[in-house]
Amino acid sequence: GLGDFSFKQPSLLPFYQGLPGCLKKIKPDIIDLENEPFNLGTFQVILARNLISPESKIVFHTWQNIFKRYPFPFNLVEKFTYQNTDWALAKNEEAEKILRKKGFSKPISILSPGVDAEQFKKGERKRVALGDKDKFIIGYIGAIVKQKGVLTLISAVSKLKAKFRLLFIGRGDYEEAVREKVGQLKLREKTLFLRTVPHREIPDYLASFDVLVLPSLTFPNWKEQFGRVLIEAMSSEIPVIGSNSGEIPRVIAEAGLIFREGDSEDLKEKLELLINNEDLCQELARKGRERVLKEYSWGVIAQKTYEIYRKILYETRP
């Protein structure tokens, strides 16, 4: 094998020690660079390509869905990347628009993340440590940070009259504020926090949910770039509710419910729709799985990647 070239350094400052030797050895047709265009590692890879394997095509990835101007030297690296690469893979629709706004004139393809549809599929409903089987289980999986809008979710469930259990899986620097809000609204008996769950066990927890909620908020320097947990839940045939932050509405499309970010009353109403309508829950579960199999399974992503590679090889030749 070719090994791993990166050291454990900050993600913007990687050093790919074995890269020159690798390029000399295999002279790749395509270098698929999973780095942002402003990343210093991107600069290193392009420079090595230019010196050692100039015939190799380079495609870079970007998640950036907010227009930002970067300080020196990242601004120069970004410009250098645009001039010295052949293709871009935008990980969401807005990232494509940002690239164009910044002056990138070469081809762009939108390539979303994928999900293992065999690992994440409808499973036995295991009420893992969740208690009463008759309660409606509302789940959140992800970082417990302000941007994810978890306080909106807590406010929304506090207004519900139905029996429910709220489950948080994840940790982050906003945990104290979240637990304080739970206490203020007298929800401690209805809320469970699981800070660390191995990813291999996530399908079991998802199978115990009645709904997964992603209540992300938009900030000046951040909005939801995708929301991978959405496609994991959809693949598992769990209904999803998401805010209208960033890419969430495009990921969910017609396979879930969307509420106005930060609006706990709107989220409460969407939750009540599902609590009171089993047919709607089943319909959204079916649509979610269908959407994943059509757009987000690893097989679909692999085919899309193959088609993009063919275009890079045959549409970018001098």
UniProtKB/TrEMBL annotation:
GO terms for molecular function: glycosyltransferase activity. Pfam families: Glycos_transf_1. Residues 128-291 form the Glycosyl transferase family domain. InterPro entries: Glyco_trans_1, Glycosyltransferase_grp1. This is Glycosyl transferase family 1 domain-containing protein. The lineage of its organism: unclassified sequences, metagenomes, ecological metagenomes.
